[in-house]
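Contributing new records

If you add data, match the layout below exactly. Sequence lines come first and carry their own label; structure lines follow with theirs. Keep one chain per record. Anything else will be rejected by the validation script.
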Amino acid sequence: MILEQIAGATKEFREKIIATYWGGKIETEQHPKLMCGCDVLPNGWTEITWKELAQSRFFGHTPIATGWSRTKLGDARMFFMHDAVSYAFIGEYWAGTVKVFRFGCKHQMETKNVGNCLNRYTCKTCGFSEVIDSSD
């Protein structure tokens, strides 16, 4: 996988991304037809619809990094988001199609009120946490 950090790549940042999405080292597997090495898909890899992408948080946040990965499904353009739920596109040139995928944690959030209209949401699975002010 080739990783491009939006604000400058570092070894520590790359290791954090790999640990978050692959749980450690990125393994490779052989493509059944092309006989080349392909990256194993990250955890939680799921094909989603364009409607699901449109209704996701993808368009509300800037990716913290982008990446490219050769997979058995095709070459994936990956968008790593701040909340450990990320997205990828795989284009098929000759067919003129693009498939969209979500990967990372499928958050199971616990809510805790920490102030007037202030709530902390913490994922029971990965530990991601954010505080949201729901006041006007």
